Amino acid sequence: MCDNFMKRKNHIIFFIIFILIFSCGKNKAKEEKEKNDVNIARENEKLEAEKYNGYVQLYNHLLQIDEYTGYYFEVAGTDKKMKRPEEKINIPSIDQSIIDAAKENIAKVPEMKELDNASRELLPVLSEMKTLTDQMTAYYGDGNYFKNKTLREEMHVNFLEITKKYRILSKKFKEAFSNRSKEQKRKIAEKIKKEGKLIEYDLMTFIDSCEEILDEIQREKISAENLTDADLAKFKELEAKMTASMDKLKNSAENQEMLKKEHYHSSDFTSFLLYTERFKEAMAKFISRVENKEKLDPKLLQNNPSLKNESGTPENVFHEYNELIKEYNKIAK
């Protein structure tokens, strides 16, 4: 009987040890799986961020092209018959390395269907445009604009035509980028808030509030021609939201404890905060025009490229936003 009891006891001990070993093995396997899942998630986040940043580079380059295209038409005019150049001719400089990088970016994972497709359509036109702008740069580079009238006017007509195609496809890309950007920023905002990076969070919140204004301008299809039709109450609401987020950001940028914690210095924000004021002023003048039903001089409407410098126009609001983003990119981490 004693032997039977000992055997049963040994079996019980063995069974308990087996359960413990199996349980430890199971817990270890679970921990390994969780660790592996975290590593995969981090790698996916990294790949997504890298691909998105590639499109950020292309987007920023398009803004530069838009800016210099505007400068060209200010001097040369937008009619088929080129105006006699009285000032310096500025030609957009299109970077081949950015085109090449964008081509590679399309094939990278993860798939960003809307952006990938928009880029695929845009890049051939951008390459075609580059061939022409390189020719124009070579022609105008020596400052002698009048050496070949026929060539000068031919390039002007070709530039008008390629710019029409470019604007359609770059708009499509920018819309796709805007959609992806909102999703990307939402993810980043959640992450940095959890990490306690409140200055970065306030920066993103302010930029989002500015973008809401631009989205509303586009939603209402407001331009210099019909700006008095804008929804005044809606724009005042968005202006108040933008001003509140701007004030919060200013307070954060002056908080020495927060600056130290997030490895910033107050001087990092000096230039950016000046541009926030410029954007705020542009928005205030736009609202003033809407409120007072102040239409633009028809002569100004004829010279479309100069509208970005005309205070109170939607085009000026967009221009000041683009200038603001250039400063934001200098400090965004």
Concise summary:
The chain is mainly α and 333 residues long. Helices cover 77% and strands 0% of the residues.
Task: Describe the structure in your own words.
With 333 residues, this protein is mostly helical. It has 2 domains: 46-177; 196-333. 77% of the residues lie in helices and 0% in strands. It has 10 helices and no strands. α3 (113-140) packs antiparallel against α4 (149-194) and α8 packs antiparallel against α10 (314-331). The radius of gyration is 29 Å and the shape is globular. Mean pLDDT is 89; it is low at 4-9.
- Write down the overall mean pLDDT: 89
Largest sheet: none
Computed structural class: mainly alpha
- Per DSSP E runs of 2 or more residues, the count of β-strands stands at 0
Determine the number of helices (DSSP H or I, runs of at least 4 residues).
10
Kindly state the percentage of residues in helix. Answer: over 70%
Amount of beta strand: under 5%
Distance between the termini: 76 Å
From the alpha-carbon coordinates, what is the Rg to the nearest angstrom?
Answer: 29 Å
Domain unit count: 2
Q: What ranges have pLDDT less than 50 throughout 5 or more consecutive residues?
A: 4-9
Order of helices and strands: HHHHHHHHHH
So what's the overall shape?
Answer: globular
